[in-house]
Write a structure and sequence with these properties.
CATH architecture of the largest domain in chain A: Alpha-Beta Barrel
CATH superfamily of the largest domain in chain A: Aldolase class I
Oligomer: homodimer
Number of helices of chain A: 13
Order of helices and strands of chain A: HEHEHEHHEHEHEEHEHEHEEHHH
Distance between the termini of chain A: 14 Å
Largest interface: A-B, 41 and 41 residues
Helix content of chain A: 25-40%
Structural class of chain A: alpha/beta
Number of domains of chain A: 2
Shape of chain A: globular
């Protein structure tokens, strides 16, 4: 085992390595989170797409596989505002793609495929005594945060700007995950226009470190020991890596998606899949909507329109409409079991830091 | 003096520290380049806006101030294609801004305010026996490169993607400057659509290091010892810092611009000033053209329209149309003489790397 200096987060979370596997609601599994946790990193699980009545079962599934702390992640976005006219406009806009995949156009008003974090979640979460709970898109109301803390949880908030980091600490976050522009999947931006919140990891992390007193996690573009060592130099107390774990057999990733990651030099920020800015590999769906982002229904209503295309694309073995979240470091992907990858990352970083 | 490990570039260029002050044609001065060079870094001077008949004098001015190597930087863009109809469209689009600053609308067809690198430059440059010559926007023809190398110069090319880095090495570059998304001023992008070439420094540098055999300079978002140490961990042989040197009294920077850097949390990529993507602090001119980038005249013809607004803005003490290039690390700016700043940066990085 490589020797690691402790950081405020390795101590606080009882980790061997300051390496966090990102929650990635669409790709994370209990197996992935547990493999990382058991190997000395911090495993995470994204519950954003979990129906509330499945929450207890999924927590139990993780705990059957590990007795180490796991980071439970939730979305706490503002509920979307229905807009049937905009829905119709999107259906019209995507009609040629639906036709190309022999799909009938999406019917009825768009419905949110999953809810925002609520008291219903809290009622199940609190008795489970979570150790670490993280949120995307801001934080839930103060009394939720207080209840989670009273139950013994540390709270991680996700910031894409210094302003968001300061807001999160003021609203109860114990730890800030500073998510740079390079990151794959959804951007955590919640205070401002996404275009004013696209800051590279190398520029963002030291500014967040200077602005808050709590430990800071660096996320975005980190794929190997070089990125980990760099993040620690920037002042981060740990790194969070998502794309890097998409090469693990424990992750739930379409083979087409995994193949595209290796060549993934052209990633884009897009609202095409969910209605919220997220980074994925450029394809026909993303390009179709690139000039029409302002028309896209509120997060997560746009999933009503993108999901059938994603499913049909996967079925046909096409990447044209496949949701392929990827960070800008994707071509550095290595396919390894999670425990082996974690050890390799730790060795690489330790060698550079020695 | 802090102890520094040598890197392939400190050895090749005879530097005490692997720190390069970026050329910054609009802000660099002979005094800045010489101060950095004399203090043990690599000073640079951007000749992009220098008329050919002033080139010899400006080189002489630098050499009067230092006998250390200085990096001479040139633009080698494709000459712009005149388009009177597009010029008129831009004049119309900017009419309200011209009116706001009591300016008469720009007359006549747009003329390029400075030429691309050519044999005329080469004829003056070669007898001056330059040590290091760097280029933006690709490279000049092969025989220019060969002539410079035969005269003893090392060639630095600027890449914003892995593909560009490979292209530059194939076309004669000895060293690659990997310019991340965070960087202020012009992006070096020359092969593809800028939107497909916006990669954060932390993700870009290790991928470029893996793709080429030559030394790689990291640029973009580096403002202090933390950024320098991080870049070296990523595999860079040196760092290039532009914005960080805008706080030096030796730099040619409008006081309004310098003040804006300290608060510069909202920077944007824009073609509004020159016709080519560059990062600056958001203001009225940038916002006016944000949704009309496709209409903007070719680089550098757009300067015909932006320069009067920039000058009037400066005169009136307004930032509304002021050209304020800035990287995403701008708020970390420190105002110090260049030699003092360089020593401070070296100390900070050395302490982290110790």
């Amino acid at each position: 085992m490589p020797h690691w200096p402790t950081t405020p987060l390795t101590e606080r979370f009882g980790l061997r390595y300051p390496i966090i596997q990102a929650p990635m609601a669409s790709a994370a599994t209990a197996e992935l989170a547990a493999a990382v946790a058991n190997a000395g990193g911090l495993g995470s699980y994204g519950f954003a797409m979990t129906p509330v009545d499945r929450l207890a079962d999924e927590i139990a599934a993780i705990r059957r596989l590990t007795n180490q702390p796991v980071n439970f992640n939730f979305f706490c976005h503002a509920p979307p505002v229905p807009d049937p006219e905009r829905d119709q406009q999107m259906a019209d806009r995507l009609a040629p793609l639906y036709a190309a995949f022999d799909l009938s156009p999406p019917a009825g008003p768009a419905a949110a495929p999953y809810p925002t974090f609520s008291e219903a979640h809290l009622e199940i979460l609190l008795p489970a005594l979570p150790t670490i709970v993280s949120f995307q898109f801001g934080l839930p109301p103060r009394f939720h945060i207080e209840a989670l803390k009273a139950a013994g949880a540390f709270i991680i908030g996700t910031a894409t700007t210094v302003e968001e980091a300061v807001w999160l600490v003021e609203h109860g976050a114990d730890v800030i995950c500073a998510q740079g522009f390079e990151a794959g999947g959804h951007r955590g931006t919640f205070l401002r226009d996404p275009a004013a919140s696209e800051i590279g990891t190398l520029a963002l992390v030291p500014q967040v470190v200077d602005a808050v007193r709590c430990p800071v996690i660096a996320a975005g573009g980190i794929m190997d020991g070089r990125g980990i060592a760099a993040a620690l130099m920037l002042g981060a107390a740990a790194v969070q890596m998502g794309t890097a774990f998409l090469g693990c057999p424990e992750a739930k990733v379409q083979p087409l998606h995994r193949r595209a990651l290796h060549a993934g030099t052209d990633t884009r920020l897009t609202k095409a899949y969910s209605g919220r800015s997220a980074r994925g590999i450029a394809n026909r769906l993303i390009e179709t909507l690139a000039a029409h982002e302002a028309e896209i229904p509120d997060f997560p209503l746009q999933q009503h329109f993108s999901r059938p295309l994603n499913a049909a694309s996967a079925l046909r073995g096409s990447t044209e409409c496949l949701q392929m979240w990827a960070g800008q470091g994707a071509p550095l992907l290595r396919e390894r079991p999670a425990a082996e990858l974690l050890k390799m990352l730790a060795h690489e970083a330790a060698a550079l830091l020695a």
